[in-house]
Write a structure and sequence with these properties.
With 166 residues, the protein is an alpha+beta fold. The protein has three helices and six strands, in the order H-E-E-E-E-E-H-H-E. Strands 1, 2, 3, 4, 5 and 6 form a six-stranded antiparallel β-sheet that branches. It is globular, with a radius of gyration of 15 Å.
């Protein structure tokens, strides 16, 4: 449908918890298509949450397939009202974010999760994710809770300028 501009920190929409979708209608399905189009238009982008395009609703898309850090992938995942219902095996890895484009951070996250939510057809979906895919999903859920990678660092030593490649 449309590639939307990505909202950058310190825009206030990024710091507000997003509202529950409740049910999936045509307007939310259009938003989901815009999220996917915007995600795919970005370089090395593996996920995008609705607040990152200025929409305060609990929705995100994710696709880590083909990413060198992804050991496993469910392909394209689009969820409304997602929630992590189980998790385990904490680990620390470097993350970047489109909404904080000049920095990366060492972030503590679960190594595996069980994630559930509403699919675009309105049915309930449940995913067990591991490794990079689990990390990316938790990153997107954080956006829906009004959290950024900046909120996940333990000290300034966990924050780094983003490398640029030519």
């Amino acid at each position: 449908m449309a590639v939307r501009p990505v909202v950058r920190y310190p825009d206030s929409v990024l710091k507000r918890p997003a509202a529950r979708a409740g049910r999936v209608d045509d307007a939310l399905r259009r938003l989901a298509r815009d999220l996917v189009d915007t995600m795919r238009a970005g370089p090395a982008t593996v996920g995008l949450a609705a607040p990152q395009v200025g929409e305060g609703v609990r929705a995100f898309c994710l696709d880590v397939s083909g990413h060198p850090r992804a050991g496993a992938s469910h392909g394209l995942v689009v969820l409304f009202d997602p929630e992590v219902v189980e998790s385990g095996d904490q680990e620390v890895l470097r993350e970047g974010c489109l909404s904080v484009p000049d920095l990366t951070a060492n972030v503590h996250r679960a190594g595996w999760i069980v994630l559930q939510g509403l699919a675009p057809d309105g049915g309930r979906s449940v995913y067990r994710m591991e490794g990079f895919e689990a990390r990316a999903a938790q990153h997107e859920v954080d956006h829906l809770d009004g959290l950024l990678i900046l909120d996940r660092i333990r000290s300034a030593a966990d924050l780094f300028p983003r490398k640029t490649y030519r």
